[in-house]
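for ur thesis appendix - Dolichyl-diphosphooligosaccharide--protein glycosyltransferase subunit STT3B. copy paste whatever u need, i formatted it the way the template wanted (i think)
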Amino acid sequence: MVTAGLIHYILNLLHVTVHIRDVCVFLAPVFSGLTAISTYLLTRELWNQGAGLLAACFIAIVPGYISRSVAGSFDNEGIAIFALQFTYYLWVCSSPEGFGGVGHKLNTRLDAVSAWGGYVFIINLIPLHVFALLLMQRYSRRVYIGVFALLQAYAFLQYLKDRLTRQEFQTLFFLGISLAACIVFLTVIYLTYTGLSTSPSLHRCRSTSRPRGCPSSLISTSWSAPSQQAFGFASRTSMMNACLAGKVRKHVSEQEKAEEGLGPNIKSIVTMLMLMLLMMFAVHCTWVTSNAYSSPSVVLASYNHDGTRNILDDFREAYYWLRQNTDEHARVMSWWDYGYQIAGMANRTTLVDNNTWNNSHIALVGKAMSSNESAAYEIMRSLDVDYVLIIFGGVIGYSGDDINKFLWMVRIAEGEHPKDIRESDYFTPQGEFRVDKAGSPTLLNCLMYKMSYYRFGEMQLDFRTPPGFDRTRNAEIGNKDIKFKHLEEAFTSEHWLVRIYKVKRLENREALDHKLRSVVSRQKYTSKKVSVFPLRRDGFSCSLSFMMLSTTYSCDPHTHLQTPQKIKTTLNSRERKETSNNQ
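the 3d part is after this line
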């Protein structure tokens, strides 16, 4: 990321308008070409140009490096392999000259440090080589001078960093780098113009019979003077040449005999075999590149018996469902392998992704996946999880699903929570990891198992296999009666490759477990008294008597209803008034 950002910044300074996305896409292929060049240079220094060309061809088509250098592969190794090869090349070039070129090696090693965690191979191997050279007494004063100069430069930079602001320090640093580059450029132009810089072969003579980094065993001198001066020394060196002529001739004759030992037929056979191997390797690399690295990883393809190809687009289907059917602030819990895809394609927040450095956070997700539902629900509540996403390949036979990765979840969780999670609990007594009835009870009841095989026991894939047969593990699952209390299925893709579950929220008040109330009806009393009022034609007394006979009275002493005695007194008073009025 640092290298991509630096390239984008430099291009913007040069007024080259390039989007940062395009820089990230084409970063790996560009450094792949530079890796081939650095490999050629390194091999040429160690052997010859032919070996360098062959090594460059190999590094350009090797499948292990193609997977890290295709367009769109924004990984550390795309830059780090180039930094590794170029550092070794600079070190091999600088070793015979007394550890020169320190600045170039320092810059390359800093690039490797910023790009790749495997830079420890470089910073450990080079000091080991220096230590071996010191034991062989092949050091010079320039070693101490160079180290002393680097320490002084570092101390001076730290002093400026403490005294200046960050903006001023960056400005001064870039000015210093630019000034140094200008001085080197002008020096090269001056030496070329004045003629002081000529071919290296006119100034020094390298012994071609020794490898790089080895001390020269011969004293060889070359001259850039006219040929007359060379002939002037011929008389003084003729006796030495005569003494050495026999040894040289003997060495050449032995080499000729060794070459004559291999007949032309054997050479032809070996050459043909090597060419056939190279052709087969090139065909294999081309096939791997076209099938494995030329298609996106979120779209899978399978081939039928007749050669037709099926496209499995379950990943994009699930991510599109997440994007359209969940809240924009929803948090998704999944294993870290799918963090970047969920964040980039579904635009949802994930707990862990490919850039998570906190191992305890990854272990907490692994603990939730490997615990039972109740314990996992407490962890998900503490992490405020809304959805859980898993990958299940039992229907289509996809071997990269979460069940096959499950043991790594258990191991990482055990490293942080050894009291709660133990890897041995997920194996059978015979030490097997099985998903059928013989599997461990801890495995058959963990959250990952239940989410993967929920409703899978009802599915029969073909007539030759029983319901609940896992094509990836080639076994019938052991727990088919799976029910959830705290989760509910939210989405399952077409081929069951991606399954998403929604985490239920706690109710405001839990249901109480009390018994039904037995309601006892109160005892009713009906007055059996007959009417004492005389019958009248207007029907007033008759209706009143009927009302009194059919009225139900409460036995409650605190009631506000009138008693029969009060009603009788009231009616008698009314009757007397009516009689007096009639009279």
